[in-house]
UniProtKB/TrEMBL annotation:
Key words, A-Z: Carbohydrate metabolism, Hydrolase, Metal-binding
Family: Belongs to the metallo-dependent hydrolases superfamily. NagA family.
Pfam families for this protein: Amidohydro_1
Organism name: Massilia terrae
Protein name per the record: N-acetylglucosamine-6-phosphate deacetylase
Domain Amidohydrolase-related: 36-355
Length: 361
C-alpha cells in the first residue's frame, strides 16, 4: 500500500492505493505524507543507459530496463539504430529474451521500436548510413525475432508509402521520421495508416510558411507524435507550439548508453558519441540522442507550465494508448501495478513495476 495524492483516470484522489501485481482498491481518505502517486512512465524510444547500448545485444536490454526503472520508467521499447541487417538481427535476438521475461528489478520491455534502417540518407542525424528500402518480407522476418511495436520510416522513399497499410494491418505503428519528405508526403503517409512522428522536429523537414514540410504535416494532422523534452533537441517555444497543435503529444527520452554515466565517450550503435554538458553529440557536434530520464522529462514539462496531470499523461497514459496497452499508463483497479511515488520536488522515492518494488537510489 502507498498513500498520498493519487492521479486516477477520473482525476486526483487523496488516499491510499492497495496493490499486488495489479492495482486493487483506491481508498479515499486522509493521505499520510505529501507524496504524489502517478502511473509509471512509458518510454517508447530508448537506445541505452549505464554504458549499455541496445545494439550490443546480449544482456544490454536488461541493463537498460533496470537503469530506467530507477527513474520511474515501468515499461519501454528497446530501440534500434540503422545498421547492417546482421547487426540488427543480433540486437533483436538480445531483446527477445528481455521481452519474454522481465528482468528482476527492471522495467517491462513491451517490444521493439525499429528506428532504423528504413530512413532517408538525407536526414540521418546521428544514424549511420546503412539504410535499406523496406519490404514486407524483411519486416516480417525481423518481427519474428522480437516483436516490433513501432517502426520509423521515411515515407517518400520508393515503395514505403505502399507498405504502410500492410504494416498497420499487422499491428505495427508506423512513424514518420528521418525523412526529407514534404508536407504532402507526410499527409499521404498519415492517410495510408501511419500513426505518429519520431522525435518531432528532429530528423525531418522543418516548417516554413510556403513549404510547411514534415513538421507542418504533424502540426496540421497528427493525433500522436513523440518529442524529446530535454530542452536541447527542441526549444521551449517549439515545444509549446507542438503541445498546442498535437492533442496527444508524448515525451520520449531517446536515451543513449551515456545516460546515468559521467562525461566521456560512449557507443551508439556503430557510432562513437560524446557526453558533455548534459547532452550527447557526435564528433561533428551534431546531437546524437540524449541522457534524459523520464522523471526529468516530467519536471521539464511542468517547468514549461503544464499542470502535473497533463505532464503525467504525456509520459504514461498517451504512450500506453498509442500502443493499445489499456492496462498500463493509468492507476485504476485491475491495471498493472506500475507506479511511481514522487516527493514534493517530483523526484522518485519509490517505483513499482507490476508490483515489484524498485529502489530508485
Amino acid at each position: 500500500m502507498v498513500s498520498g495524492r493519487i492521479l486516477t483516470p477520473g482525476g486526483w484522489i487523496n488516499g491510499s492505493l492497495e496493490f499486488g501485481e495489479r492495482i486493487g482498491r483506491i481508498i479515499e481518505g486522509p493521505a499520510a505524507g505529501k507524496h504524489t502517486i502517478l502511473p509509471g512512465f512509458i518510454d517508447l524510444h530508448v537506445h541505452g543507459a549505464a554504458g549499455a547500448d541496445i545494439m550490443e545485444g546480449g544482456d544490454s536490454g536488461a541493463i537498460v530496463a533496470r537503469t530506467h526503472a530507477r527513474h520511474g520508467t515501468t515499461s519501454l521499447l528497446g530501440t534500434t539504430m540503422t545498421a547492417k541487417e546482421t547487426h540488427i538481427r543480433h540486437a533483436l535476438q538480445g531483446l527477445a529474451g528481455v521481452i519474454a521475461q522481465r528482468p528482476a528489478g527492471g522495467a517491462r520491455m513491451l517490444g521493439v521500436h525499429l528506428e532504423g534502417p528504413f530512413l532517408n540518407l538525407k536526414r540521418l542525424g546521428a544514424q549511420p548510413p546503412d539504410v535499406m528500402v523496406a519490404s514486407l518480407e524483411l519486416v516480417e522476418s525481423l518481427d519474428a525475432i522480437a516483436k516490433i511495436r513501432v517502426l520509423t520510416m521515411a515515407p517518400e522513399v520508393d515503395g514505403h508509402l505502399d507498405l504502410i497499410p500492410q504494416l498497420a494491418a499487422r499491428g505495427i505503428r508506423v512513424q514518420i521520421g528521418h525523412s526529407a519528405g514534404s508536407y504532402e508526403d507526410g499527409a499521404a503517409a498519415l492517410k495510408a495508416g501511419a500513426t505518429g512522428f519520431t522525435h518531432l522536429f528532429n530528423g525531418m523537414t522543418g516548417f516554413a510558411h510556403r513549404e510547411p514540410g514534415m513538421v507542418g504535416a504533424a502540426l496540421a494532422h497528427a493525433e500522436y507524435a513523440e518529442v524529446i523534452p530535454d530542452l536541447q533537441h527542441v526549444s521551449e517555444g517549439a515545444l509549446k507550439v507542438a503541445l498546442r497543435a498535437i492533442p496527444r503529444l508524448y515525451g520520449v527520452t531517446d536515451a543513449t548508453s551515456a545516460t546515468g554515466m559521467p562525461d566521456g565517450e560512449y557507443g551508439l550503435g556503430s557510432q562513437r558519441v560524446f557526453k558533455c554538458a548534459g547532452c550527447v553529440r557526435l564528433a561533428s557536434g551534431s546531437l546524437a540522442g540524449s541522457v534524459l530520464t523520464m522523471d526529468q522529462a516530467l519536471r521539464n514539462f511542468v517547468g514549461l507550465g503544464l499542470d502535473l496531470a497533463d505532464a503525467s499523461h504525456r509520459l504514461s497514459y498517451y504512450p500506453a494508448d498509442y500502443l493499445g496497452e489499456t492496462e498500463r499508463g493509468r492507476i485504476a483497479p485491475g491495471a498493472w501495478a506500475d507506479i511511481v511515488v514522487l516527493d514534493e520536488a517530483l523526484r522518485p522515492v519509490a517505483v513499482y513495476v507490476e508490483g515489484e518494488a524498485i529502489d530508485p537510489h
